[in-house]
Every structure is written in structure tokens, then in C-alpha cells.
TrEMBL record:
<dbReference type="GO" id="GO:0032196">
    <property type="term" value="P:transposition"/>
</dbReference>
<dbReference type="InterPro" id="IPR001959">
    <property type="entry name" value="Transposase"/>
</dbReference>
<feature type="compositionally biased region" description="Polar residues">
    <location>
        <begin position="299"/>
        <end position="309"/>
    </location>
</feature>
<dbReference type="InterPro" id="IPR010095">
    <property type="entry name" value="Cas12f1-like_TNB"/>
</dbReference>
<keyword id="KW-0815">Transposition</keyword>
<dbReference type="GO" id="GO:0003677">
    <property type="term" value="F:DNA binding"/>
</dbReference>
<feature type="domain" description="Cas12f1-like TNB">
    <location>
        <begin position="210"/>
        <end position="272"/>
    </location>
</feature>
<comment type="similarity">
    <text>In the C-terminal section; belongs to the transposase 35 family.</text>
</comment>
<dbReference type="GO" id="GO:0006310">
    <property type="term" value="P:DNA recombination"/>
</dbReference>
<dbReference type="Pfam" id="PF07282">
    <property type="entry name" value="Cas12f1-like_TNB"/>
</dbReference>
<keyword id="KW-0238">DNA-binding</keyword>
<feature type="region of interest" description="Disordered">
    <location>
        <begin position="272"/>
        <end position="309"/>
    </location>
</feature>
<feature type="domain" description="Probable transposase IS891/IS1136/IS1341">
    <location>
        <begin position="77"/>
        <end position="183"/>
    </location>
</feature>
<keyword id="KW-0233">DNA recombination</keyword>
<protein>
    <submittedName>
        <fullName>Putative transposase</fullName>
    </submittedName>
</protein>
<dbReference type="Pfam" id="PF01385">
    <property type="entry name" value="OrfB_IS605"/>
</dbReference>
Amino acid sequence: MFDTSGEPVLNAKGRQVHARQVLVQKLNKKWAQVKVPGCGWVKFRNTRPGLPDAKSFRVTYRAGKWHVAFAVIPDPVDAPGNGETVGIDRGVAITAALSDGRVLNCPHLSVKERAKLRKPQRRASRTGKGSLLCKAEHTEAARLKAKEANRCKDWCEKTSTMLARSFDTIRFEKLHIKHMTRSARGTVDEPGKQVSQKTGLNRAILAQGWGLLRQRTEDKAPGRVEDVPTAYTSLRCSDCHWIDKNSRKSQARFVCSNCGFTCNADLNASNNVAAGQGGNSRPRHSAGAGGMTRRSLRVSVNPSNAISP
Ligand SMILES: [Zn+2]
């Protein structure tokens, strides 16, 4: 956000201005100015100590506010050198479960704020489409949504810095967020099932900032971030490596059907990620996703197929 002496020219698509040449001047402790092409000197609130040493900057207009962002490549965070490895299991109920037992949650809008957000959305639906009033209501809604996005971003920045500072190796499970958030709508001939439920889940997944957390951690700790394949991370016992879908008693509870190891399900998964286990092909002795009964069933039905212990 900044005071303008004539608004910057924006392109039609992204409503933003890029500039390759950076001319910045300090005005006082809080304010500085930058030369925007086609517009002249523009004052902006400097939120960082010192002037930005950037090669380019971008001016954007988002949710009723002007922003100027300088492209500065930050120095990577030094590894702590303690040899510690952390596994991170990302989920919807818990944003990030760490293998050291910590549970981190990305902040969202409160119930009160959500109710506040619905008001302008409702009002906008009653106004004429494209009218000035409609636009104003949408701006108000966008302002509140931007608040949530900003909180999520802030959380991702703080969490990734914390991870880069406190661990030598950071392991994430490999997620295909794009595949996971595919719509369930289907085609006209074959409409999908539970489309609105899937839409809600997709929204919840995208609101967690999974991708951003992984990306920012990599930026701050280059070469120290590893991806672990996801298969069976949530079904494998982190103690005896037994895989059984019956071990996952509920969303939060994990009780191993083989050794009785009891643990929070997310913590168990993050332990598997930390150990780098997940994608190893299913061991022969595991009960598999079908459950333990399968093995004994197969033995009785067809003895030639029995798996030797
Ligand atoms: Zn076990």
C-alpha cells in the first residue's frame, strides 16, 4: 500500500506493473519512494530495515490495496549442524505434524470472521451484476479473504524458517497437490459423485498452504529438503513397519495390529516420513490395505499361494 501521485499504469490481465530498473530513495524512518515507470516517484511504507537491494520490483493492486514487492533473493539459512532429521506429515485436520511430536496448524479465519465474510457475499448476490455496489461488496469480501491468505503465508514463512534453523534434513512426503485437488465433477454423460464434498475438501487442502511450506523451506534450506514417496506412510507402523489398514483406528488414533504400538496417527506418519520410509514396495509379510484376515483366507482357499512365514 502506498500513496500515489498518479496511479501506476496496470496491464489488463494481472493488474500489475513490473519494472526492471530499481531506483529507491529513503524519505524517513518509515517511508521511502520508488520510481515507477510512467508514473514517477511513488511513496511506499518500508516494512523492512534498510532499503531493498533488488534487481526488479512489481506493483500490484489486490483487494483494494496497492503493494510494491521487491525481488530480493534472501541468503539461505545455515544448517544447525546437529545431524537431526525431521519428517513432516501434512494433513487437513492438522496442517503439519512433525516427527518430534509437535503439531503445527495454519491459522484461518475465525468463526466470527467467516460470518463477516458471508455478509458482503450475500449482499453482492442481491445487487445487479456488474453494478458499482456489486463491485464494492466483492472488494469487501476479497479484503477478508486476503486476510486469511496473508495469515497462511505468514505462517508458512515463519514455519519454514523455524524448520530450516532447527533441522539438518527436512523430509516431506511427496504430494501431488494438483492431482489431489482435481474436481470430482466428471462429464455431462458421467457426472461424478459427491462433487460438492470433494470441492470442500479441495478447498480445505488448498487453504493449508502445503505447497508453499515445502517451497519456502526449500528456498531457505537448499539441498536439505527431501521428498519421501507417500505410499503407506499413514498405514505403516513406525515401530515394527507392519502395514495394515486396520491399524488406523480413526483419523487421529493409530494402534498397530501387529505389535500394539499406539500413537497419534499423524505422528506415526511423520515418523515414517522422517525415517524415509513410505514408498518401499509393500513387504510380503504385511497384511496390506485389505487387512490381516486376507492372508489366512488365501491360505485356506488356495494352499499353493500361501506365503511362507
Ligand atoms: Zn507395529
